[in-house]
């Protein structure tokens, strides 16, 4: 078998058009494949994932062309035997390449279907997230409403134009008058249209130490004018400057006598605003009865250490706590005053209101104003000065001051209720243990524990000595006796009580009544009492009370008291009541 050259040409002519068709199909599939956005999400089935199908086709073309040339040369060299073998090998290579091409086309089709599926899923998710259909429906509704309003407006305008062109003969004057009134008063009528109030919730700022410190400083700066005004009034009432207070007293009493007290106060307010206007314009005007207190210069925050910053935050928190506590005490006392919590105090207010009401109904207003102005001047300039200068006189005769201090707060009411309930339970328990034929006076005896006797037996005092109502349950504390050196005698845990004449400490380690570990201090023997800070390292003002007596070399310290301020006030007040006039009293409780 000799193979003719024309047969070889025919085979080559059949192969080339088939290759071109395959290449065109691959190009179209490549365009479909990389039409979406996720081109790199799928790996190509070829050997190089980043290469395109055109590159693979070019490689095949480059590979086939040399084979065809070699076949031509071999046919020319050996037209008899080698041509058939080369043709058979070329045909097998072509079949293999075509099968590989078909597999590759199949893989590309699968990839295109997967990309279509993923794109459909993304489109569905986007439609669900954006709610395009709902927005389209709402848009159509709004368009319909707008069209309806336009139609109505057109009808109204047409009807008005018709009425203006052809008004009825009987209603011409009426329509003109109505139009004139609407043009003049329509703007004011629109202001009275009721609009529902919108409840807007303000966003709360998170807790920040820096913000808390800045707010406390702002509060202090904002309250400075009010505090300065109150300081000036207090200095005027205390006769800090004798000449100023005397002149003010004479002017005020003269104005009150002639009925000019209110005009004088209004004139002073106008004068103060005028001075503030001049100060705002740059005038240097400064008038004050007492000298102004300049705030200390605070160091910059950059120079503070970590411990100083922590101490600064603690100081701010302590000031905020004390401020809120004082405000809560005032509000609770006012509430309890009007709610008849203390009937004897509220009864005084009730009677005074009735007297004032009847006086205003019977007496003329000029006389009532004269009496009120005259009493206010005497109270401010004379009575308050005497009460502030003489504390004992104030504790006896200043009725508003006494009633205000006796008004309880809610925590004090709760403590009294709990103390009363516990006292009833203990009294009943003690009554059940008392033998028959023995009388028990609940007011003269008080049981603190089932192992010990009555209060006067525990401390060896008279039967009339009982704890004050403020400390019926006692204050838990520890007694630090710095004169002793033994650890067991140096610190003792127990309860502290205050009676009318004694300060009693009951040790928790005492096994019997009238134990030597219990401590009884006579209030009249106290030479010094102060608030004490046991550990200076800890922040705050401490939780201890230091009491000095002639029998001790070093003052006794009652430390670890949670209610230290309350105990100090009670001890100091009771001490002031029993101190004789011949003895020099202690300093103020603010020491």
UniProtKB/TrEMBL annotation:
Domain GRAM: 453-533
Record key words, sorted: Coiled coil, Membrane, Transmembrane, Transmembrane helix
Membrane-spanning intervals of the chain: 259-279
Coiled-coil parts of chain: 109-152
One of the protein's GO biological processes: apoptotic process
PANTHER family: GRAM DOMAIN-CONTAINING PROTEIN 4
Descriptive protein name: GRAM domain containing 4
Taxonomic source organism: Oncorhynchus kisutch
Gene designation: GRAMD4
